[in-house]
Amino acid sequence: MNNSVLSLLQLTGIAPQLFRVAEKVLSNDRISVNEGILLYTEGTLPFLSLLAESASQRVSDNHVFFNRNFHIEPTNICVNHCAFCSYRRRKGEEGCWEFSIEDIKGKVDSYKNSGATEVHIVGGVHPDRDVHFYADMIRAVKECMPAIHIKAFTAVEIDSMCRQAGLTIESGLQILKEAGLDSMPGGGAEIFDVQMRQKICPDKTGPDEWLRIHKTAHELSIPTNATMLYGLLETYEHRIDHMERLRTLQDETKGFNAFIPLKFKHYNNSFSHIKEATTVEDLKNYAMSRIFLDNIPHLKAYWPMIGKQVAQLSLAFGVDDLDGTIDDSTKIYSMAGSDEQNPSASTDELIAMIKGAGKIPAERDTVYNIIKIF
Ligand code: V47
Ligand code: SF4
Fold first, then answer.
1. Of all residues in the chain, what percent carry a pLDDT higher than 90?
2. Residues whose CB falls within 8 Å of the CB of residue 69, separated by 6 or more in sequence, listed in order
């Protein structure tokens, strides 16, 4: 099959250096940093789609995954000052919130009979909530829904909550794991280049520390995801550098489940003057992520950020995961101007999106065990 694809590609008259990279991808060989940059700059959309779909088929065999989940954002009070953030508030500022553990229990209770298998908990870096507070929160969630998978806290939140308790990352993560933390989401990675970070998130946990926290989680058998914020000042070289660092860690630990490119949304933040990436750029970026990250099993399109139509299109560009039902429970993107102001999708809607793209819908748990094929 790959040989016939290569013959077809030859007929289209693509440049010899692109043909050689295509040969590598179609034979399951890893591409280099320079080849990644070449594909980003020279690869056309149909060409990248073809390569990304071939890479995706090897992992997911035409399945597209989703789960039933809801989000809890415990607070939007944050000590950091990321210039792209529309969500952060100072303590006492209008529009801030900080849920107590009782509040969180009430929210979880309302999902008891919803069929949700996962709760995603991410929020701001609170000035005075430490690891013990968050361990209590996790225990309270498990008390309400003992079978729920808790995917919680970015490396940036973990970094701060451990420091506040005077604990190492390893001890802090161990405490959270014993309380019931099952996995970690991929946020806070932004773009790893330090000069870029200086401009967009100067006081956030740095790239080496972000990677070290994920490595420590993997060593404690806590699987994690990884993200990349794109469409904000960075170059293709920065994106490939970011993915290269993730690919290197994944070779070592195999602890990342999914990669999630996060499209910069510009409403109501210090970078509102920057135009958002085009849909063509979104699709190219998904394809490149699938092609370059040959060792991270899944590629997720986070539909509340890009909208359901682009998410459906992304299924032809290497994406094999649409996240979940989410159920109107996240504010981080609606406050940054996402089209999805009240993000919620029924399972029927997700199934129709996947079937409409010619793929097989598969409901999964957080760690990609298949629950049901539709
Ligand atoms: O790290 C904040 C991003 C992330 C904006 O692991 C923005 O399954 C775009 O961790 N425009 C947090 N992005 C969200 C997160 C996440 C989301 C979905 C799935 C998973 C997963 C994890 O949100 C932050 C930051 O990169 N973000 N503001 C903005 N204006
Ligand atoms: Fe805080 Fe996260 Fe916003 Fe940065 S992106 S200011 S860490 S809430």
1. 83
2. 116, 117, 118, 119, 120, 323, 324, 325, 326, 327
Give the chain's radius of gyration (CA, Å): 20
Calpha distance 25→30 (Å, rounded): 7
Whole-structure pTM over 0.70, yes or no? yes
Give the ligand at the shortest distance from the Cα of 266: 1
* Under 8 Å between Cβ of 274 and 234: no
Q: What is the mean pLDDT of the chain?
A: 93
CB-CB contact of 223 with 367 (8 Å)? yes
- Residue 330's pLDDT is what? 59
**What's the pLDDT tens digit per position in 104-157?**
999 999 999 888 999 999 999 999 999 999 999 999 999 999 999 999 999 999
8 A C-beta contact, residue 108 and residue 119: yes
Does residue 335's CB lie within 6 angstroms of at least one atom of ligand 2?
no
Contact indicator for 84, 201 with CB cutoff of 8 Å: yes
Q: Which atom of ligand 1 is nearest to the CA of 304?
A: 18
Compute, in angstroms, the gap from residue 189 CA to the centroid of ligand 2: 11
What pLDDT shows up at residue 179? 98
Cβ of residue 121 lying under 6 Å from some atom of ligand 2:
no
Within 61-193, where are the H helices? 101-109, 131-144, 155-164, 169-179
Q: Which amino acid is at 186?
A: G
Q: Is the CB of 265 under 6 A from ligand 1?
A: yes
The reported pLDDT for the residue numbered 344 is 73
**Whole-Å CA distances, 138 to 17, 102, 142:** 51, 12, 6
Question: CA-CA distance, 168 to 27, in Å (whole number)?
Answer: 43
**331-358 residue pLDDT tens:** 666 666 666 656 577 888 899 999 999 9
- Which residues of the chain are in CATH 3.20.20.70 domains? 65-373
Query: Hey, what CATH topology would domain 65-373 get?
Result: TIM Barrel (3.20.20)
Q: Is the CB of 229 under 6 A from ligand 1?
A: yes
